[in-house]
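Dear colleague,

Following up on yesterday's call, I've attached the two folding results inline so they're easy to grep. Please treat them as preliminary; we haven't cross-checked anything against experimental data yet. The first protein's sequence and structure tokens come first.
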Amino acid sequence: MNRDEEYIQATVMELIRKNGALPSVEQKETLQAADLNRTLTEWGVNSFRALYLLYDLEEVFRVQIPDNCLTPETFESPLTIINCLKVLLNDKAIS
């Protein structure tokens, strides 16, 4: 994983924790690979909090997540969000 991917991953996880409702004990320092596959619901993100997460993602990464990416599949887990952002940021860098 390169530095850009590490930054994306760390930032997405920080925003999920910010917008989730899990107790601080869940906010462990070391991220396990399995954590990236946990659903947003498991992270304490409900539909209302998902809107704030979407806003924060667009604000922090300076991208607009297109309507065709606003699907349950894209917002299923941290990993699916990270993969979406990588594509958007790559497209942004090319244009």
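Below is the second protein, in the same order (sequence, then structure):
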Amino acid sequence: MLQQILNDMWVDPELLAELDESQKQTLFCKMREEQVRRWKMWDCSDPPKPPHSSRASRKRVEFLLDAQGGPWTWVMGEHPDDKSIDTIMEEEAREAARRLAEKEAQTLRISMEAELTELLELNKKQREEIEVAEQRLEAEDIYCSADELKSFSRPPPVAVHNPLKRDAPNPLKRDALQEISFNKPHKVSQRVALWEKRLMEERTSEIYKKIQKQKQDAVKKQKKLRTNRNNFGENKKGKRKKLKVR
């Protein structure tokens, strides 16, 4: 059975389940020895070389040489311009925070574009209704007859209450709507871009701080676990010494 397993380099799971731990370790060691033996036999034999083109290749690999004439190597951290591992990890964390903030800003921009489109359509409809109401008032004044004008004196002008203006926005919102809908769309786009940039920077800073806090909490947790393990080991050693003394 063992020879068959070594030949196939495979163990039936049912047979493996019946073995205890010592037998499993022995079996695995035997399989490893057989694997090493096969590798050595392969190395000692002369395996066929892969075919290659008969043409002389002009490609060459030349390594830089150091002062002693050996291959030049660069150990990271020895050069004054090398970044430390803390700096590299900080840059990676900032880049991850920036990508996440950019994704959030893009999602928010899409929702804002939908809201602005709806607001522009509503503003256009309100302006059309106001223009129709003003034209109707002007038409009533034009078609008033001359006899009617002579028969009675014109009453003082009364402020026309337009129901469309009842829910008019405050001056800041009205100016913003006019700026968005009529005059300066390029300035609005610039403001939206600046707002998006500022929001992305703020979110990047918040996400970076959150990532750093998570790393600090993980380090504290690991230190606490190590301290508990050390205390447990010392207590265990102390108990063993007491038992030996007794």
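For the second protein, one point worth flagging: The radius of gyration is 42 Å.

Best wishes,
A.L.
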